[in-house]
Amino acid sequence: MIKGCIFDLDGVIVDTAKYHYLAWKKLADELGFEFTKSDNERLKGVSRMRSLDILLKIGNKQFDKETKLKFAENKNKEYLNYIMKMTPDEILPGVIEFLEELQNKKIKIALGSASKNAMTILTQLKLTKYFDTVIDGTQVSKTKPNPEVFIKGAQSLNLKPEECLVFEDAEAGIEAAISGNFKSVGIGSIDNLGKANYIMQGFDGITFEKIVKLIN
Ligand code: B16
Ligand code: MG
Fold first, then answer.
1. Mean pLDDT throughout 127-153?
2. How far is the CA of 216 from the centre of ligand 1 (A)?
3. What is the set of domains in the chain, with CATH numbers?
């Protein structure tokens, strides 16, 4: 029986990928190489430092650790300029209705995100009141596909993994859910999320009750 839901943030609750793209692109421009929107797909769900490594590989550039930390810090400052201008209008369609349905049904709610900015984003979107617990990039040492973020989420909700449903838009996130023994819903395409128990385009028009029936 599902007693809790664990949500990824970027690509599930809000599209912050477009701001990550603009901030990483600024760094690529400064370093003199092209970074496309299709390249940006490879950074979804990936931690900040791992994202930087992928970006530098695309540009065929190498730097020492200290320089890389400075690049990541500058990118994050640029990213936060966008994040601080976000409003609740940017919450993806159907998300609030879905969270309210969960609250009404006494289903526990967790966030499980790789982002170190997750609390800032939830605050900007006025969503903190819905979450019983928030596990973010500041609390995990192993990134998805390792299930650590979801396992910590379930533990914090006092639930077993098999009692939780994970919502994820990244392939690594679905893999993390499966390896942690969670049921999962993929938000996006069957091409990369085919291993999820159920796949949908978003929360618009969908209910928790319907999903539970479909995955059982
Ligand atoms: P930050 P998620 C992820 O969020 C993003 O998809 C990914 O592109 C980003 O690099 C990562 O957070 C770290 O973000 O730089 O804010 O710590 O999908 O796990 O909610
Ligand atoms: Mg995501």
1. 97
2. 30
3. 4-15+88-215 (3.40.50.1000), 17-83 (1.10.150.240)
